Amino acid sequence: MTDADHGPGARRRGRPPRTESAGTRDRILTAAREEFSERGYEKTSVRGIAKAAGVDSALVHHYFGTKEQVFEAAVSVAFAPALNAPAALADGPPDGVGERLTRFVLGVWENPTTRTPLLAIVRSAVNNETAAAVFRRLVATQLLRRIAGQLDLPDAELRAELAAAQLIGCAMLRYVIKVEPLASADLEQIVARVAPVVQGHLTAP
Q: pTM for the complete prediction?
């Protein structure tokens, strides 16, 4: 062992510094989102994610565990903007909740920065049951139940799910499958037609 190993600038063996750990973890998550987006869940491997992130595959397992756990972590980060949807319900009068939620959800899809990782999630979930289960769990526990919690109605969970189905279906056709004329229609026209339906699901008797 040389003197440099004991100098003030020498790195101790063991865990990497906290700042390096955070940077490595973020790099792995970014690589994972890109791999899942390009290859889908089934064709993506931990080794491929590690290679894209420039790390050893053992480090991916160290931070996240299995491929399913990597996917869930990547989904959670990508899905984070949508988790603010419940706040859209509370921010205004009840008779405008349908429009606020519709604008919020479609706004997330309209933004290229948030749309790209969402596309990766949806494509993986559609083609693989494991990925679909992760997506369902995230949507149910972190989004729909929070929305239902703001509805003072006995069938609140069903109402929240129906509203979500309306919006997710619209997003699928417009941004994923790109069915015309919906794909190129003006956003305001879509909001004007979809918002009343969402409003009905959430508040109608």
A: 0.69
